[in-house]
Fold these 3 entries.
Entry 1:
Amino acid sequence: MAHQENPTRPQREAKKRAAAALSELQTGASKKKRVVLGELTNITNSSVVPPQQQQPAKPVLDNRRFSQNEEKIKTTTTRGKKRTVGKNQKPAVTPPETVDAAKKPEVTVDPQLCAPYVSDIYDYLRKMEEDPSKRPLPDYVQKVQRHVNANMRGVLVDWLVEVAEEYKLVSDTLYFSVSYIDRYLSLTALSSQKLQLLGVSAMLIASKYEEIKPPEVEEFCYITDNTYTKDQVVEMEADILKSLKFELGGPTVKTFLRRFSKVAQESKDTSDLQFEFLTSYLAELSLLDYNCVKFLPSLVAASVVFLARFMLSPKKHPWNAALYQLTRYKPAELKECAQNIHDLYLSRRGGSLQAVREKYKQHKFKCVATTPSPPEIPVSYFEFRVADP
């Protein structure tokens, strides 16, 4: 029959590959060591932790499977090819690129953010982030929670950073996880014994929302040293979804940071990649601080850009008209948030939380966590006129 396949004998190379694969499967790779969250109830309720003092117990990732290879930068190259040119045919010459100083900054990093609709899309994102149904209460620890404090939240988020690294989850998954945690805690009082359960269940939901191949429920149980059963994780997952009314989307700090980075990467002294990693580091530090919950994601992203530009060029004003036009924030509006994140960077706050700091000390992130920074941001940098260059 025409539609039937003719069986063919496997080639010798295929047999060897199959035998090698079978041998590898039989040997089996060693299982991941579990990341266990420290005892939350032993943590004092203090928002400032000097780095030189004895640090409270924190989660330790025993088997970090971080890649030692630096991240490869995708570049597009063209290889020269010989072409024959006729007598009456002139070789094609690419004209030099001209720069229009009056042209508005190009911000369409994402191909989906088409130039004609950039302003409308940004307006929509700003409106969406202000939606009360997608925002946590700025003071839920004081008003809703009785057994969970700001330090416990910080330890949980710090541990989730390690979990995200262990399973190589995208950054958006981490941001959504923290968002779900804050929103849930704004609605429901929770015991400290179930805080880690909330964390892994929120990350399970975020993984299903963002990842191509999310980790299985059993893996999240395993990463907690089987403190919780599969049924408990699934039950908490359902409780979170019902509490949030299945409203899982919305812009995060990372959403706005991607838009702001294009215009912000103007420094000639540092690479774009270094600036990108530094802003990512500062943004993830902001996740640790309960005091940053009250700020809108767009304001946090703008503050991160402001602080990163200041750290890389301390003698130059970190804000300009192009950034104001893009973000619609003046430096004075960023002052409180930028100073909070600066204190986090200098370990004046949350000094005991080391997962994010250790993550960005790696060479694949260009060791941006070791970038020097002045101890204070000059007050004059928060003064800005729209007409300033």
Entry 2:
Amino acid sequence: MSIPGSLRGIQSLRNVFRAQPLQANLRRLSSTSASAPWFIDNETNAQTEHRAPPSAMSRIRNAPPLPANTPQILKEIHTELLESPHLDISQLVVSPAIPPAPGPDLPSKPGQGRRKRGVTYAGESAYDATNGLWSWFIFAQVKEGTESRGAIDSVVRIVRKVLLNRTPPVPLPPKSRRQMQNGWAMVDAGNFAIHVLSKESRDKYFSDIIPR
């Protein structure tokens, strides 16, 4: 006995409707299993995804701690420099300006003659009220042997990019390649400065300035 065409069509539709819930369940199970196993809590899995990779954590641990009152802009530069493969992270130092120790006072000497010439006390200086041209410093030392292979130039580009991408951008002087050839480059950002230097330049010029 042959089945009429209309009945065959109805039967095929029933088979389609029966298969749809099964396929939906399979898709749902496959997506759930791909995201996380059944025995891992979703909240725990989310925390694991946002955790910093081990390499980044080790670099942060190797870097000297930032001072508590570090300005935000220096924190941003510091964060970017931590990712540079050219730097010796253990020598990445952020420090406020430390004024030099005052020298001995000049002996007071009264003036001579009618015009009182030769007086050694000239009053208070406005320069003495400040700590120099810059209030903060960053000292970034490149790895030994990389200073002549473009490492200093690469780090300077990172610093300038951070400063120029701010709103408003920090005004910077033109980049000088003459400094980089000497194993030392400085980015003057107004009230703070970033020194990118080799170990030789650090030991030669900054051994008594950079805090240990």
Entry 3:
Amino acid sequence: MGVKSTLRHELSRVPGLLGLARLAAGTFRVCMKHRVTGLAAEAGFFALLSLPPLIFGLLGAVGYLGHWLGPDIVGQVTANIEHYASGFLTEQSLRDVIMPTVNSALSAGRPDVVSVGFLLSLWSGSRALNVMLDTVSIMYGHGGHRGIVQARMLSLSLYFGGLIFGAIVVPLIVIGPDILSGWLPPGLRFLMVFYWPLVGGLTILTLATFFHIATPGRLPWLRHLPGGVLTLAIWVVASMMLRWFLGRSVGDHSASIYGPLAAAIVVMTWLYFLGIAVLIGAALNSASVRLWRAPERTPVHERAIEWIGDGVTRLREQTVETETGRLKLPVTRVESAERRRSRAIPEPVLAEDATPDEPRLDSRRAIG
């Protein structure tokens, strides 16, 4: 008995362990096949280039809520953003890159961002989504199935929808449970216990929806949930480890050889690990589909085109049948008129000595 057979036999003793081992091996195989580290570096680079327009576009729209929320709430939102981001980024990157942008955007609405600059941010900010859609499609084994124009339009629509969704949800997240509990009646403040589980659940649902949209060959939406859970887990753990490591290598407490580039390097490294987390989640979904097959669904636009084509075909058939009936209708009326006329005129009665070729009138019907 070989090593592989022995290992399979030992794993099969525990229910579900053999399938879990096969899933882990399949995920590792997909990551190695499609060069997950290189794709993550590509996605992280374009995400770094798209980060300024993305932040300006999102916070520029959220900044208009500052007059409605009041200066105290805006200050609390800024403090919460700095507090949450400090768990993943270093103090230098927060001080030099993130917080100046947040303060300038949340202090008031940014018309230069939301007007002409907003249109430019839509184009440049969607580049990261375009690359991420392409890399996720590659991990699922569907690379190159979308055209350039179709992929670009999809990334633009996702980016625009993400800005609208983020402008509504991000303030609720960064405000924090303390302020939200003050807005609720005393009898409902116990719901704040579910605040962070709800945030995590919404993140998983968003990632699963992104995986579902990114794959040209659509699978059932539930098949993307495991990848969303794994992506969030890897992202949180990797961010904490990265924060600990970078705080001791390029942070303020040690002599950094990167100098003024340290903040940008930290942000890019964090985006790189975010890309790795997303791609490993996509690899998990791809491996699960290969192990346990699921029927692929036709994309919505293809089903819509097929439905419209079937409707046009049925309409043409009905039109042809109607036109054919209209053409045959006068002939039918003439035939029925001839038939009525023939019934109205009695056929001549032949005399007893007449032949069929020489009909003679019956003398009994003669007048007088």
